[in-house]
Structures are given as C-alpha cells and as structure tokens.
Structure to design on (832 residues):
C-alpha cells in the first residue's frame, strides 16, 4: 500500500515552521495574505495523507479544494510525468491554437475525449478553471451573435465599435447565474460568482441576472412537496429573469450552473430541476453551460455529476479543471463558429440531406469558384443567379465531404 | 551544438500531414478553427529549429508567439523538468494560496524574486498571462478602494450589494489602456485589449477609457520634434481621459501599458514617454501596471524592457508569462491589502517611525487585547480612550516587529 496507516500529530497546527518570522507567504500572496493555513511537505505526502512542514501527518478530506484525484504522489502519475515524451509541452510551450503538436488530436481522443459528456465530441483545453469558464462564456456570446446575424458577417459598425469596447460590436449580452454559485475569480467568471463577500468586494462587475438556487429542506423524503415547490419557484424566477433581461436590452446568451453548488454551501437540487432548467435554456435560445470544475472527475459516483440526471443531452458546454489535471471545456458542434468563414465570398448556406447550395458574392465569383475547384479536381454545379449547388450521389460518404472541403477551402483562401 | 545547421524543406507548408481529412483540429479548437497553421513535431525540434509533421525544418523566428526562451528541447530545461523534486507541483496540485509547499518561498527567492523589477520584493504566481493581468487589475481595484475607505472596513451596504454585482460593493472603477494594446482575452483583460476585431467582436465589455498610443515616424533621428509632439499629445489625452472618467463617476484605478505594443504592431515610444506616463498615474492616484508578458525575459537586451527607461521606480505592478515559463505579477508592498485585517477590532493605524498607535473597538477591547498580548509575552501600552500605543526602544529591529505581529495576530484571531 502506497500510504501511511493513520494521522500523526506532533505539534498544534499551524506549527512552528508555519509561523515563521517574517511570514514568508507575504512574499507571494497579493490579495489575501491571511488565507494561508500552513506550509506543507509535498514530498513526504502520500495517498490520502498530507504532511505539513512540522511533520504533522493528516488524513486529507479536502485535497487542495478537491483537486487531487488519486492521492498525493501516486506512483502512476509520477511515472507518467517523468516520461520525457509527456514533458515536451512544458518545455516547448506550443501555442496550441496555431501550432499544435502532431499527436495532440490522438492524445485528446485517448484521454479527455474518451470521457466526453453525452452529445459532445470536441474539447478546448485551458490552463485553469477560470480561463475555461471565461472562454466558454465567449463561445456562448459568439454563438448567440452568429445565430442572430445569420449567414451575413459582422457590419462595419460592429467591427469599428468593438475595438473601443462599444456596442453594437461589444454587445450587451448577459450570462444568467445562481446565488451561491462559484465559477472562478477573473472578471467575467466573477460576475457569475455569488459565494462570499471577500470574492466580490471592490471588483467592477456586469449587470447580469442572478436567480435563486433551491434551498432544499432535509430529510428530503419528509419535504417532497415543499422541495418541489421550492424548485418550481426558482425555475419560474429563471424564466422571469430571462424575459426581463431581454426587455432591458441585455439578452441572456447562456445559463451557467454547478450540478452541486460547492463554494456556496454544497447546495443540491433534483435531477428534475436540472433537466427543466436545461429545457428553459433551450426554449429561450440560451446556451446551457454546466460547470463541473469541482463536481467532475468521479467524486460523485459517476464521472460527471450531470450523468446522474439521466438525460442524453445534458448541456451545450461542460467545463472542467481540478481533478482532470488540466482545464478546459467540452462543447457541442453548434458552438464552433466555422460557418463564419469567408463571409466576403459566401453566404446563405442551405440544404436538406445532401441537396445543398450556397451563394457566392456575385455571378462572376460563382463561375470562377466553380472553375478553380474543377482545376483542383472537384466538380460542382451552378444554379440561379449566383448559387453553387451540390448534387453528390447516394454513395457519397463523410470522407468525400472532407476531401471536397479541403480543396474548396484552398480555393477560397487563394481567391482574390 | 544542440541544433540543426539550416532549414530543410520537403513539402510546401502546410504539408499533407497538416491537411488531414477530416481536419483533426476541429476536435479541440472552440473559437477560431481557421487559425491553425500546421501540425508540429516537437520531439524532433531543437534549439532555433521547429520541425513540422511533414519533416520540414524551419528556423523559428516566432517561437510560439515569443514563448520559447532558450530554444526547443534545451537539455538544461529537460533535465530540470525530469527531476522528480521539481514535478511535485504538477502531480500534487497544491492550492498555493492556502497550503503552499514549505520550500516555495525559497524557490521563489532563487528564481522569480532574483530578477524582480526595481522596487519590488513580492510576486504572485499565476497559470498564464491573462490570469496574471486579471488578478493584477483586481489588486489595483482593491488597493484603490482601501485607499478611499481609509482604515475603516467596508460598509454593510457594500458587503450586501457586491454579492449581486451592484454598486457600491462592485464599484464603477476603470482601467485606462491604449489603442493597439493587447493584454489577454479573458473578459477583464479583453476590455484593455484593442488589437484586432477577431479578438473583440461579440464579447461584452466595460466602458473604460482608451488613450491613443504614439505613432512614431521613422527614421527617429529625422523626426525628433514631430515625435516629441506626438508623445506629448498622447500624454495630454491620457490626463484628459482620467479627469473625464472621474467626472463620469468611473474613476481610473490603474493604467496598463506594454513597454512595446506587440500584437498591436510593435509600436515603440521613448523612455521619456513612459516615465511621464508613470508620473501622470502617480499624480492622479492611479496604480501603474507594466505588462511585460511579451517584452520580458531578456528579449529586448535587458531582463525587463522597462529597465531601459532608467528609473528606480518604474511601476507598481509588472506582469509576466511566456518566456518566464509561468505567469504572475510582481507588486509593490502598498498593493498588498494586509491593513484590512480585523476591521471589527482595529482601526486608525497611525505613526511616525516607531512612534505608533492603533485604536481598538472600545476601551474594554483595548484593555483585553493588552492583557492577552501580555499573557503571550509582549508588553504594550494604552492611551486615550481606546488606543494602544507602541514605544519600542531605539535598538528595536524588524525581526522584533515580526515577533510582535505573530503574537498579536494570534490574540486577534482568538478574540471573541
């Protein structure tokens, strides 16, 4: 057994080595110097036991705010991390968004994508939980605006106003969150966090809607009716807030919720509550973001806490960090804005099955695109004034579509 | 020499392995699928040479957006990172703000603090550049509000309103930034970023002041007068904006600037410009934050680009990431809000030299604190209605002050 047998206390905690003079942590803590509990000896810590600087050995039921998945210094993790093949990213700092490692897709498929939530086949990695939520919010804002604009690109006014933080380019969209929620402390996340004064005080925020989270009475079996009413009340308030914020000109682009509110007090709600909430989001055209940063990774008995809800379509975005040893978020296909490519050349993509068409900028462009695509080995057709039509056979497969898309992408990228 | 001799191209770029069908990067890129240049072979890359998935070997003058300090797979870095003693943080995920490793202060003193900017002896580490800037903004907001409130703690109204994103608890403070600036893409940072439409479009922002950055004419020797006028114009605009935003009820808590605007176009300004800007910040009670995420780490010829300005007091906060292989920010003592401790027991800290005093909540509390502190081995005095006075000898040293503070902190923490 790679572990100690029992706790062993030598001094009160914090012990002498954690009460040094001057206090060493004031060297490296900017905002809350009083939060340091004690200094730790991570080399001696093992499994479920944390050892502090004074040799006190404690059974750890907190694990760095729920971040240590399989205990301290697990041999399998030490082995994985001392394998030079796995260290290249730490040393070489690849900018994953422009120069990804060739084996990155494969590694993701083996690891993060092998545990992807139902309905999701894509994952964006991030350094921490806050960054994951921040970027998930941005994905929802972008998705919402593309939906609103349709196939046309942004207007000249949107493109100039966004550079100076003004609308319409920087729109007044909002994210709906819950009282007691905690989603991180960078400024976007913080606007959806409502846990403790010390997290919020003195930091500018956004005027976004905040719904009440159900306060269940225990034991649950004794308060079935009351709890159902409480949940219904909260869900009704969510809908009212969505309508109110739309009327205020700050429409809700997304709803964020934790399957169990952690920092806010371990507040639970029924599976039914979350399924209904997800449906409210869909009904009102909001994306639904489930924050599994603390609940994810197996701790609730299923890999993701939302699996307990028993639905095949739990969310549009699921964010994670902590036990997953990296941050990031899974997202549904619809949230990837690849439809916005080449808006100056193409618009009005439409179709049913493989009976598809897309408009070019004008008839000359349409004719040129068809010819250049033929030069590269793909036959297309035209119709109407400026449309390109697709009529592949009934034995046309997905890889044929990708062959076409690669070639067509080259044509579009080179077109002047 | 741990390196290749010369570039060696086998295919056009992107080559066949970077143009796979279906495109593998759509699995892991949420917001800008079109940005992937090509897939890389980081294991074969060495020194100044990046090797791609098709075996093309390129002299890399971009280094992952300026993030690779001493080349790919440098033996010294590989050695440091395969040392098990250095891996504990990756496996054990310490929450540094509450349970720091016992050797963390020492490691920081040896590493990050050994290259601290002039006037700074503290550093807060962060996972990336965006998080560093986000938290630096928060440090400036908190510092500004504590300055405003004086020694009294937050009001009941501030504490309740902040929980729901409202003023006064969430104040309308602002950060002044420059057109062409880039400070990251999470929502707070993004409000100070004005580089490209694709970074800004469709993301809600803050109404913060944005100043023009000097557009210098080259060659510099030929346009001395014009450039001096241009810089003076921009500095005047900075002051006008600070005054205007104060009148609007959104006072500027801090100014952020890069020593050379990178993403925005490699825009330079004279040392004189930055020194004057720093003085404008001081004059108007704003903190001054220099973003060295891209310019830091030696690339400009000095460790920090701001060292070229030749002043002993360049900034209040200096943020970093990229080449430093971790994110974070250095900060001046005044930005650490430890004066806010125990506001329910203490207030009105005042003094000159060691002739100091502090008020207790009332006379009974003052008397009790003095007695309890004496029980733990420190003698204090009282004066006035509810004050504690300090009158140490002229051979009283800093470590004596820390001895006292540790004991007094225990008394205050236990006091009911």
């Amino acid at each position: 057994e790679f572990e100690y047998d029992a706790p062993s206390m030598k001094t009160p905690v914090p012990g002498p080595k954690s009460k040094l003079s001057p206090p060493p942590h004031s060297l490296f803590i900017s905002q809350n110097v009083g939060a340091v509990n004690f200094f730790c000896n991570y080399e001696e810590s093992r499994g479920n036991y944390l050892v502090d600087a004074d040799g006190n050995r404690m059974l750890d039921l907190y694990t760095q705010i729920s971040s240590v998945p399989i205990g301290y210094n697990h041999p399998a993790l030490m082995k994985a991390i001392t394998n030079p093949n796995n260290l290249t990213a730490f040393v070489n700092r690849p900018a994953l968004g422009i120069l990804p490692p060739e084996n990155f897709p494969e590694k993701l498929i083996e690891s993060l994508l092998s545990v992807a939530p139902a309905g999701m086949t894509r994952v964006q990695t991030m350094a921490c939980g806050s960054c994951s939520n921040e970027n998930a919010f941005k994905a929802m804002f972008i998705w919402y605006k593309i939906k609103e604009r349709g196939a046309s690109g942004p207007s000249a006014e949107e493109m100039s106003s966004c550079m100076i933080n003004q609308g319409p380019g920087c729109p007044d969209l909002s994210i709906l969150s819950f009282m007691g929620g905690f989603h991180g402390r960078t400024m976007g996340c913080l606007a959806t966090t409502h846990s403790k004064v010390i997290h919020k005080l003195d930091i500018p925020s956004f005027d976004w809607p905040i719904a009440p989270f159900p306060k269940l009475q225990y034991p649950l079996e004794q308060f079935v009716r009351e709890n159902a009413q409480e949940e219904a009340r909260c869900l009704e308030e969510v809908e009212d807030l969505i309508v109110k914020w739309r009327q205020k000109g700050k429409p809700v682009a997304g709803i964020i919720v934790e399957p169990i509110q952690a920092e806010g007090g371990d507040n639970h709600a029924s599976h039914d509550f979350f399924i209904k909430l997800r449906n409210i989001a869909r009904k009102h055209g909001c994306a639904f973001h489930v924050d599994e940063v603390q609940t994810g990774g197996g701790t609730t008995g299923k890999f993701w806490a939302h699996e307990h809800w028993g639905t095949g379509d739990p969310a549009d975005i699921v964010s994670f960090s902590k036990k997953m040893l990296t941050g990031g978020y899974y997202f549904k296909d619809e949230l990837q804005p690849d439809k916005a490519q080449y808006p100056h050349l193409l618009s009005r993509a439409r179709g049913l099955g493989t009976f598809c068409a897309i408009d070019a900028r004008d008839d000359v462009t349409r004719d040129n695109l068809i010819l250049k695509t033929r030069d590269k080995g793909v036959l297309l057709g035209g119709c109407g004034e400026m449309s390109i039509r697709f009529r592949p056979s009934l034995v046309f497969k997905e890889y044929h579509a990708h062959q076409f898309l690669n070639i067509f992408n080259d044509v579009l990228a080179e077109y002047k």
Notes: Chain B has three domains: 1-82, 116-335, 346-414.
